[in-house]
Amino acid sequence: MNIKTAYRMFKQWQHTPFDNEFASNNTQHCANCGHDFVGNYCPYCSQKSGLGPITWHSVWRSIAEVWGMHNRSLLFSLAQLFLRPGYFIGDYINGKRQVSFPPVKMLAIIAVLGVIVDFLTGAIHGMIQVDKDDRMSYITVAFSWLNVHLNGAFPPPSDYLNKVFLWLNTHPDLLSLVLLSFLIIPNYFIFRFAPRNTRHTLPQGFFIQVFSTVVFMIMNMIYDITTMGWFVLLLGAVMIFRTYRQLFGYGVWGTLWRVVMAFMCGYTLLSILLNINYGIHLQRLDLGDVARGYFLNVPIAILILVVILWLCYIISKPRAKKH
């Protein structure tokens, strides 16, 4: 088998990886309800075929189910997420629930494993590394510069922003969960008329981001173990692109600019929260004049967000064919 043939088979497997044929066409007797049936599951009580008295295999299976190591296991689902991410997510949100380990449970287990990896590797550093002690100070400067040039709000000397950004940097799992959750609404408008999974709903968008967060958490564990930050960031960017292209069916450039716009909207939503948070902090310090400048950024950011989403919606909307 040559490389071209193997790649063609892999592409075909990405689209149709599951074999849903009956394991046997022979009549079987259900040990639970006593009915005879043909197929993989009893139609009367839903018990799986082939189950009988308890054996050592039953013991292993019961223990394995706690960690998602049974049929359609956690490892199986994670492999699908990396080998065919968009197709796998598309299968799940369109009703093929049996193709995946429960996604929210998967997220919880991966989060626990991430904490364990952090503890074992001593990974208290974040994804963005600089040599200075105030490693996030350059982000603080950029944040302050934007506010000064937008509305003249000059923040007083304070290490509050440093602490906020440092906390975000050293909690990449939580940051991934928060930031990716901000993509649900942008994706709803930007990919509204996609060739594949057209008009996906907000609940579907929730599960899209749950699966995406699982991938990002695994990326963070890889970083904790290897400390290869830029490699992990590059791999993450590739995974995002592959996921969105397979999930929504746009071409290379169509996927690329929409993903960029979606993340711009996500970061804009994050900046809104940061401005509100810092404005409240300044208000508590009786610096109301400066705080108002940061609160003023909120409607400006919302306006920018609305304009971006509106333009993406209009560009993506199919045009009526001229007769």
Offer a concise description of the structure.
The chain has 323 residues and is mostly helical. It contains 13 helices and two strands.
Plain-language structure description:
- With 323 residues, this protein is mainly alpha-helical.
- The chain is built from 13 helices and two strands.
- The N and C termini lie far apart (49 Å).
How many beta strands in the DSSP annotation?
2
**Considering DSSP H and I runs of 4 or more, what fraction of the residues is helical?**
55-70%
The radius of gyration is 25 Å
Strand order across the largest sheet: 1-2
Major sheet size, sense and barrel closure: 2 strands, antiparallel
> Order of helices and strands, N to C?
HEEHHHHHHHHHHHH
- Name the beta content range: under 5%
Any idea how many domains?
A: 1
- How many individual helices? 13
Rounded mean pLDDT is 78
Low-confidence segments: 125-139, 148-154
Give the overall form. globular
Helices, strands, pairings?
Layout (H helix, E strand, L loop, with lengths): L2 H13 L12 E2 L6 E2 L18 H11 L7 H10 L1 H9 L9 H19 L15 H15 L8 H10 L2 H10 L2 H7 L11 H25 L2 H20 L3 H33 L3 H29 L7
Antiparallel strand pairs: 1-2
Helix pairs in contact: 3-4, 4-11, 5-10, 8-10, 8-12, 9-10, 10-11, 11-12, 12-13
Task: Supply the key terms.
13 helices, two-stranded antiparallel ribbon, mainly alpha, 323 residues, 2 strands
